């Protein structure tokens, strides 16, 4: 298995190289520049021309790409035109915020989705199952950003239970105060994101459990007198996790990439909001670094999904 993982990692290298070239070219092909309007809407064109020249934006694309790669191998992703900070520092700061929110959302998603899917399947055709299905249908029918706006209006403004912007309160002091303030800022967006994330888990798990309940090996186990709770725990649940495990890696890396809707509505300074602002301000260095990072996370998610799937089902081997 380790040899296969190493081979898959080595295959990622040419894929990332091709991705970096495409991303670099697409970023440079965007209309506009990072300086017009960012300094002063009435800035002298000569000043903008000077800034473009000293930053090498008039150089041929292959020369700009080579310079970018050379700095990349030294851990330098360039300087953000908009924030006037190293891109590495920006990604570290925003990545930490996104990591907290992603972990919290992931724990809630699977903590709610797995029991709810099992509960609905266990009470197939009953009132409990109907209520769970109504919840999934209603959740799927409402756009995610609408729920975010309603949630922030009710729990943030009307009830004033949770903060509506930022990641840490300015009044937080000390390690304990900072952690509690950060947790307070991610509860509402994490909970709303998890409620939407549970829909696919509940539906997949419910369908798989219902199919497994009527399978031959379950009927055989019941005929041998095996308690139903043991059948659920040792047979049905494990086999029903296969389709969910296949998407686990993508879910993890997708959350790490940041949710643009969530971070935009809550003004949460994470990776998603950073990417959106970088596009608005034509911040080429940030755009290139983030898209390359997202590509790496997507490739990593594919590998993680295969590994998780092989752990859940030993018959599956990572190839």
UniProtKB/TrEMBL annotation:
Q: Which PROSITE patterns match?
A: ABC_TM1
Q: Where is the ABC transmembrane type-1 domain?
A: 95-305
Location(s) in or outside the cell: Cell membrane
Q: Which CDD domains match?
A: TM_PBP2 (cd06261)
Which spans are transmembrane here? 99-122, 134-159, 186-205, 241-266, 286-312
Manganese among keywords? no
Pfam families for this protein:
BPD_transp_1, BPD_transp_1_N
Look up the coiled coil feature and give its residue ranges: none
UniProt GO BP: transmembrane transport
First-listed, main subcellular location of the protein, grouped into a coarse class: membrane
The annotated topology with respect to the bilayer is: Multi-pass membrane protein
Is the keyword Phosphoprotein in the record? no
* Family, as annotated: Belongs to the binding-protein-dependent transport system permease family.
Tell me which PANTHER family the record gives.
INNER MEMBRANE ABC TRANSPORTER, OLIGOPEPTIDE TRANSPORT SYSTEM PERMEASE PROTEIN APPB
The identity of this protein, by name, is Peptide ABC transporter permease
Origin species, per record, is Lentilactobacillus parakefiri
């Amino acid at each position: 298995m380790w040899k296969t993982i190493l081979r898959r990692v080595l295959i990622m290298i040419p894929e990332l190289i091709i991705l970096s070239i495409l991303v670099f070219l697409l970023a440079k092909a965007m209309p506009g520049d990072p300086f017009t309007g960012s300094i002063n809407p009435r800035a002298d064109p000569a000043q903008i021309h000077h800034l473009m020249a000293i930053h090498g934006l008039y150089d041929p694309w292959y020369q700009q790409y080579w310079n970018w790669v050379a700095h990349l191998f030294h851990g330098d992703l360039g300087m953000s035109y908009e924030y006037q900070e190293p891109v590495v520092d920006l990604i570290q700061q925003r990545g930490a915020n996104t990591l907290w929110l992603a972990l919290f959302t992931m724990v809630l998603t699977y903590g709610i989705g797995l029991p709810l899917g099992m509960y609905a399947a266990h009470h197939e055709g009953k009132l409990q199952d109907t209520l769970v299905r109504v919840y999934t249908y209603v959740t799927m029918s409402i756009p995610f950003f609408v729920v975010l706006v309603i949630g922030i209006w009710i729990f943030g403004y009307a009830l004033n239970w949770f903060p509506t912007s930022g990641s840490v309160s300015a009044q937080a002091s000390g390690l304990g105060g900072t952690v509690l303030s950060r947790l307070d800022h991610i509860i509402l967006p994490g909970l709303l994101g998890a409620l939407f994330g549970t829909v696919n888990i509940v539906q997949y798990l419910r369908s798989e459990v219902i199919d497994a309940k009527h399978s031959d090996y379950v009927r055989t186990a019941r005929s041998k007198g095996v308690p139903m709770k043991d059948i659920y725990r040792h047979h049905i649940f494990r086999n029903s996790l296969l389709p969910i495990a296949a998407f686990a890696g993508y879910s993890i890396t997708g959350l790490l990439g940041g949710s643009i809707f969530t971070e935009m509505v809550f003004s949460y300074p994470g990776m998603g909001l950073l990417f959106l602002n970088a596009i608005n301000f034509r911040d080429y260095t940030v755009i290139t670094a983030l898209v390359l990072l997202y590509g790496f996370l997507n490739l990593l998610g594919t590998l993680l999904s295969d590994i998780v799937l092989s752990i859940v089902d030993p018959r599956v081997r990572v190839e």
